[in-house]
Amino acid sequence: MVGGLTKKGAATRERIVAGAASLLRERGVDEVSLDDIRGATATSKSQLFHYFPDGRAQLLLAVAQYEAQEVLLDQQPQLDALGPPGSWAAWRDVVVDRYERQGTRCPMSALTRRLAPSHPEVGPVVAILLTTWQQKIEDGLRRAGVGEPRTKAMIILAALQGGVALLLATGDSTALRVALDQALDGLI
Predict the structure, then answer these.
(1) By C-alpha distance, which of 133, 124, 101, 95 is closest to 25?
(2) How far is CA 171 from the centre of its chain?
(3) 4: DSSP letter
(4) Are 23 and 40 contacting, i.e. CB atoms less than 8 angstroms apart?
(5) Which of 17, 25, 145, 175 is in the most buried spot, having the most CB atoms within 10 Å?
(6) Confidence of residue 31 (pLDDT cuts 50, 70, 90)
(7) Comparing C-alpha atoms, which of 130, 125, 116 is closest to residue 161?
(8) Are 136 and 79 in contact (CB under 8 A)?
(9) What are φ and ψ of residue 5, in 5° steps?
C-alpha cells in the first residue's frame, strides 16, 4: 500500500497526474478540462473522482506537487553533483536550457496563481520546492568550500528566479543567463 492506495492504485493516480501535467504544460491551465484529462489518460469519470474526489482543484494541486518535483528532477544529476570545478557551469547550462525550452509557459506559476486564493496547501508546495532547491545549492557550495554557503545559495536562487520571471514576461533568456553568471561568479 502506498499512501493508502494499492501499488496499482498509486500507479493509476500517478498516470492521471502525469498526463494532466503534460496537457497543462502543452495547452495551459484554462484550456484543459477534466474530460480532456480523462481522454488523454484513458481514465473513466469514476476513476478520476475516486482519486480526486474534490474534483479539478484537487487534481490541479496534485499536478502542482508533481511539477515542483519535476523542477528539481530536471536538474539532475547536475544539481546533486554541485561542488567541484565545472559542476556549476554544467548545472547552469541545464537550468538555462530547461527554462528556454519551457519559454513563457510556466506550469508551476500558472497552477499556483490559479489555486492560491482558495487553497492554503499551495503555499507550502512552493515553499518546499524553494527550500529544497536552496538546500541543494547550499550543499554544493559547502562541497566547493565557499564561505557563507547559505547566503550565497539565497543569492544564486534569487538570481535564478528573477531571471526566470523576466524570461516568462519577455520570452528572452538573456536576463536569466546574465543573472546566473553573476551569481555564480568565482564558481564557473
Answers:
(1) 101
(2) 18
(3) T
(4) yes
(5) 17
(6) confident
(7) 130
(8) yes
(9) -110, 150
Q: Of 131, 151, 128, nearest to 141 (Cα)?
A: 151
Cα end-to-end span (Å), the chain: 45
- What is the average pLDDT across 44-69? 91
pTM above 0.90, yes or no: no
Is 170's pLDDT higher than 90? yes
Q: Pinpoint the alpha helices (H) of 42-173.
A: 45-51, 56-73, 87-102, 107-115, 122-143, 149-170
Residue 162 has phi, psi (to 5 degrees) of -65, -40
Indicate the length of the chain as a whole number. 188
Least confident of 37-41, 113-117, 128-132, 150-154: 113-117
Q: Are 95 and 161 in contact (CB under 8 A)?
A: no
Q: Would the pLDDT of 3 be above 70?
A: no
pLDDT at 114: 65
